[in-house]
Amino acid sequence: MVANLERTLARIRAIPAHVQAAAVAALENEMKALVEAEKRVCPRGDDARGSPAHLADSIRYYRAGTGAAGRETLKFIMIADAKDSHGRLIGASVEHGHIAANGTHVPGAHFWFAVYRARKRAMRRRLLAATKRAFLAG
At how many degrees (to 10) do helices 112-137 and 17-41 cross? Predict the structure, then answer.
């Protein structure tokens, strides 16, 4: 197991810097587009479910930082950090449904994973193409 890990890490270290930079730039563009798509389909406060309008405004992404070896990681995290009046995150309640204050069930408005699933193959294809283009450009 450790031998496979070392071999994999050696292959990752062998990736040229310009290819890594192209992959990071392509991934950041994909994350921007994904966040915009999520914001477009996110339920708003004027819909029948009464979802808060600030949920869409809270959708964003950020860079994950550095890895264990001190190298920059190719990882972005997308979150919706809107909170209710009690300080609890509300994204999962809107996505999966919840029990309202009056005891009625509020059905979920599935938007988060549906957008990702619809865009996943095209995102992967564009990332691979950008990486190949950078590698062949030398």
Answer: 160
